[in-house]
Amino acid sequence: MSRTSPPAPLDYLRRWPLRAWVAAVAFFLYAPLVTLILFSFNESRRNIVWTGFTVDWYMQVFQDDGLIEAFVNSLTIAAISTVLSVILGALVAVAVWRFRFPGKAAFEGLLALPIVVPEICMGVAMLVFFSRIMPWPADLPWPLDLGAITIAHVSFSFPFVAVIVRARLLSFNRELEEAARDLGASEWRVFLDVLVPHMRPALVAGALLAFTLSLDDFVITFFTSGPDTVTFPVKVYSMVRFSVTPEVNAASTLLILITVLLTAIGLKLQGKDIARAEGGA
Amino acid sequence: MEQDWRQSRGSFLASFGPPAFWLTLFFLVPLAIIWAYSFGRNISMTEVAVTGTLSNYARIADPVYVSIFVKSIGYAALTTLLCLIIGFPVALAITFAPSRAKAWLLLLIMLPFWTNLLVRTYALMAVLRTEGYVNTVLGWIGIGPLPLLHNNFAVVLGLVYVNLPFLVLPLYAALDRLDRSLLEASLDLGAGHLRTIREIVVPLALPGILSGLLITFIPALGSYLTPDLLGGPDSQMIANVIERNFKRANDWPFGSALSFILMYLTFFAIAAQTLLAARRRKAGGEG
């Protein structure tokens, strides 16, 4: 229907003022990022004039031990935090979905709190907690020394996973669970063989979200990281505060690349899950 | 049907226990400590005595801090308004786009949203600085260089830049739920597009629009990175003052009080939105 011309009354995208507007917004959103990527391949260090193609800045990034270490730290924290967040998020989603218990409404409000509390408040709370209440030993072997940051990341990530899993559980037919139990399955088997397969798309989506949230976080990490436990955003922050350099352009481009890859993987996995769900139905 | 927790204590404790424990120890306790600290004072470099004093809160009434709060709220409100003006047509175009174009447009909005905040802010720095390409282009036509970076203009521009997807996505979700036949009826009956939007789309989608505004306002209010990197000496927002008190001035009790005022402001914004939504629902039910 949308191919008929002139445009249908509600076919706003085919009207030129809106097209121009969307194009302008896309330019606004992407121009800075595209420039950053392009100039990470520019030979000239100071000038913004294009003087020639080079991958030297990438070579420098790969030789910069501090940057590499920060990068590995970030990925490690994100991986551990994702696993813990998915487990905790799925558990709490199932608990709230399945059970009635005293103080449930209050608990649900509490669970939403890490999502709405300003990052800076959570950051300083973590700073105080890990310096006065539960000092995290500084001389632990890697990756245990990243514990404080990882704990903070799990605290703000798992409530997001819980939201996604709860939304998915709404479409679960509780009779399936009862049928499995009537047929003699234990609680654990019901959880593993009936609930988890149903939750799978939400678990994948939640894992990707948790990974991105962890990789993206600067403010809370900034307050929990020590001099020896630096993540990629914290490292880049210390580099960009005063200058714009091609090395940072190159490092940022790598991070953008990871984001794009993760998004693509996520879309692909979700597409597969949807296809499977539809095929099975 | 939901099950009473007593019917299956083991499963309840196994699923509820670990997350509740984590949330209490690694979220509630830290917040409770800074809440207590906000009623305390420094007694040495590393010790805070919780004395129940209100002096930290009294200090916030100082015009210097009041003006920073007013400014932060003003910037967040201006950012939200600009995002609404810029984002609404985009959300409208996405909503009524054919499904293939819709998927691509959503991806177009999502991708910057997933990109690291620091990288996005840094990209803006590179564009806006004196040697940046906006000023170079302006130089070709004989203008400038204009001071685009390290001032209040840069902060608001940066806040709009990083928060725009936050508003477009909920706006799209709100508009997508509308009953299209109502819009078509309005257009058939001779109302123009602008009038249809004003009198049909906006009133019907208002709850979704309001929650979108809230989702944009809250992170904008608590922004740290954008004013820190793009702002000048006079563009500090609340979060920057909080950071300074914790990291440099070492005045944790005062920083804690500031944090809690920021949190109360956030909760107030959420409560106001919830109340508005509830009142509208009630009015709609009676009408």
Please give the structural blueprint:
The complex is a heterodimer of chains A (281) and B (287).
Chain A: H1 16-39, H2 56-63, H3 65-98, E1 99-100, H4 104-116, H5 119-133, H6 147-169, H7 174-182, H8 187-216, H9 219-224, H10 232-240, H11 246-280
Helix pairs in contact in A: 2-11, 3-6, 3-8, 3-10, 4-6, 6-8, 7-8, 8-11
Chain B: E1 3-4, H1 9-37, E2 40-42, E3 48-50, H2 55-60, H3 63-95, H4 99-114, H5 117-128, H6 133-140, H7 152-176, H8 180-188, H9 193-221, H10 225-230, H11 238-248, H12 252-286
Antiparallel strand pairs in B: 2-3
The overall strand count of chain B is 3
Instruction: Using the 3D structure, state the CATH architecture of the largest domain in chain A.
Output: Orthogonal Bundle
Multimeric organization: heterodimer
Q: Can you count the helices of chain B?
A: 12
- Given the helix and strand composition of chain A, which structural class is it? mainly alpha
How do the helices and strands follow one another from N- to C-terminus of chain B?
Answer: EHEEHHHHHHHHHHH
Rg of chain B from C-alpha positions? 24 Å
| CATH domain class of chain B | Mainly Alpha
* Gross CATH architecture of chain B: Orthogonal Bundle
Note poorly predicted spans of chain A. Answer: none
